[in-house]
Fold:
Amino acid sequence: MDYRLRLAKRMLFNKRGSLIGAVLAVTIGIMVIHVNFVIFQGLFDAIVRDISDYRNGDILVTDESDYINKSDLSLVNWFERIPYVDAVAPRLSSTAEMNMTKNGKRFEETRIPIVGVDPFRDIRASTVHETVTEGNYVFSRNSIVLGSIVARDLGGAQVGDSVKVLVVDRWGQDQIKRFTVSGIANSPGGQGFDYTAVVHIDSLRDMLNRKGETSSFMVKLNDPSKALEVKEFFLRSFPNDDFIAETIEESAEQQLAGFRSGIAMINIIGYFGMMSSAFAIVTIQMMLVNGKTKEIGILRAIGAKRKDILIIFILQGMIIGAIGTGVGTAAGLGYTFYAKETKMSWNNSLPLEVTYNWGKIIQTALTSFILAIIASLYPSYRATKLLPVEAIRTV
Amino acid sequence: MLEIKNLSKIYGEGRNKVKALDNVSFSIEQGEIVLVVGSSGSGKSTLLNMIGLLDNPTNGTIFIDGIDTTTLDDNKTASFRNKKLGFIFQFSNLLSDLSVLENVLLPRQIAGTNNTAEKDARDLLKAVGLEDQMHQRSNKISGGQAQRAAIARGLINKPSIVLADEPTGNLDSVTSETIVQLMKSMAKKLNQTFIIVTHDRKQFGDVDRVITIKDGKAFKGDQPLEMEILV
Structure:
């Protein structure tokens, strides 16, 4: 082993307090980045996941004129011939007024979003049905699933209750229909249909006087990375229609834009944390250099060049960086594993969508290792500036 | 071997100027044991630091093996110290993070010539009586043993000159005597030049030469009446 590496190692390992302090500084810097990533990126991905699973699929097809006139069957069949497509579900959206009499008291709510679904196709393309915590998902033309917030606002609607729904049809006429509550939907984090009512798509079409029309199709892929490819293929295949097709990133952009800049900000804060670790390393390395002044003088006296002294202390920075990066990355991965396995969430809010972003993990590890080396440059340079005759006199 | 011409060292400036060495000239031949004596603050350690290239003179030249060491740049100075000079300090100054053997090996490793390094180091440690302590951490051995290890370290690169600054200054009289005898025997055995700075002339007995430093000036011999200025 090169004597410089041996000396760097021994000097460092014989000052365990300094070594632990410096390693902790690097570890904490990395942990901050990992924890931030797990929480904020996990939250972002969870929102994307839920928007995709509940509302938009991997591709959302709409029309410039708000309603799609092509038949459900023809579009669904067209999509389902593509090997990447798992399922396609049509949906029709509107707003409604609802009222319900409970224990002799009448409750009325206006401007409630209402979604018409094809129950058979919807349970294949979306997971909204999994958020029905009481009762069942829409199964007949008379059944309605109320979001938990809607049910609460209607005086505590329960499965089996009767709800009167009023919508304004395409001609501006009020259309009223009575539904029986078949289920109450309650999603963790409220990204599902908690503020919405869900009915059979044909019932809503009848009420809106929009036979065979659809607001959107949510397309679920077995390989979401092919979304752009499928989208472009779809648009190329229907050049004369006014379809709008958006991937989940595009369709959810409005909801996610703010969050995205928030994550960028948090990441910057994380990297500032890493910079603080670098300052801690500078301080600890300066202490190490000060504590080894005499040894530096002796080394210089017996022939070590300034370059050799520089290498010894840079090697110390590398050792600190390597151990800190290793421990920090292991701890960060441990935390990520824990968050993923336990489907981490707070107060029953939406469970984080935790992923191992290896690019980010490697980038964090490398940044932190390089920062540890950079942090050791100044103390190392200071060490080379010591005059041997003065350094040896140090007690 | 060693030739010093008009060597001066002045510390400070203006009113604070102190002349630590004043126009010192002398030369030393291969294999000589030379004692540099003088009272505390006389300039003897300053002289040793100049010869050891640990400090730069204000004026004058130092030739070692025909090379004017005052003209060397920092890297060449370091290499020169490594290959041509051996150091024995008052407090042994072994690196506490290394074992005795590693300390002795260090100058050879710095030089980058490792072929017979370990064998040479072991031989030297045997010669100074430390064969049982080779793998001990250097801060776990006694002061006398540490000074023996320092002698071995000073000799490992077969230097032209070994410079010893108060090598017995931190030892009890019995251990000091052992160290003095060890240095003398090594000098004889290896035909090694030793320049030893001490304030205790008597401890060293017969040596080849004595140079006395007084108020920065160098004198031949150590008896005031006999002292002849070296210029």
